[in-house]
Amino acid sequence: VQDAASGQDPRPVGDEGSRWRWKEEICQILGEIQAPLSSLLLRLCHWLLPKLLTRLFLSVQLHRGQLEMVLRAARTPEVPLVFLCSHQSQVDGLLLSFVLLSQGVGLPRVAVGARTSPRLRSLLQRLGGIFLPSGMAQTWSDRDKGLPAAVLDAYIQEVLRSRQPLVLFLEEPSASLRLADPARLWLLRLLRALQDGAVPDILVVPVGIAYDVAP
């Protein structure tokens, strides 16, 4: 992050005004990625979600054998879990988060790639959603450069080190089976975390969600 900041500001590293501006910009980028989790909202959603799900679905079925393998993987010391998911509906993130939390895997950080309104973005951030910083919503040639990309790399490495489960959706809902642009950027973060030695390994769990009728 320091290298990226100094690369866009030619003044000496020891300049106090320059360092203060870096810190302000870095905090702003972090605020776009995440927000502090709200325990009140989490408890409210944990109470509301079963009521919502029973109205949306006649039943929710899990493969018990696969769930047992995920629970065993979650007990692997010092190795984070990353769930790579197909994306069929806008409720996928809520459904998967509820299942993982109710099974004792933990509250996941869910990468959200779709454009959302500021109010919805703020709500999802407080429930564990993470977003790409606005500085990375540019052309492909510029997306992976500069301070926003460096801060995002550092952020994902800290999420992995703390062994918070991470959920990445590989496609946009109702789109063709093609890797979405935001998914490419998130996956690159994981690859760099391994290359930089931030974590010794990552356990990748493929997740398929299917509906008789998608909500």
From TrEMBL:
Species per Swiss-Prot/TrEMBL record: Tichodroma muraria
MF terms in GO: glycerol-3-phosphate O-acyltransferase activity
A cellular-component GO term for this protein: mitochondrial membrane
InterPro entries for this protein: GPAT/DHAPAT, Plipid/glycerol_acylTrfase
Coiled coil: none
Keywords: Acyltransferase, Transferase
Name of the protein in question: GPAT2 acyltransferase
Domain Phospholipid/glycerol acyltransferase residues, every copy: 81-212
Gene Ontology annotations of biological process type: fatty acid metabolic process; glycerol-3-phosphate metabolic process; phospholipid biosynthetic process; piRNA processing; triglyceride biosynthetic process
Keyword Transferase appears in the UniProt entry: yes
Top-level lineage group: Eukaryota
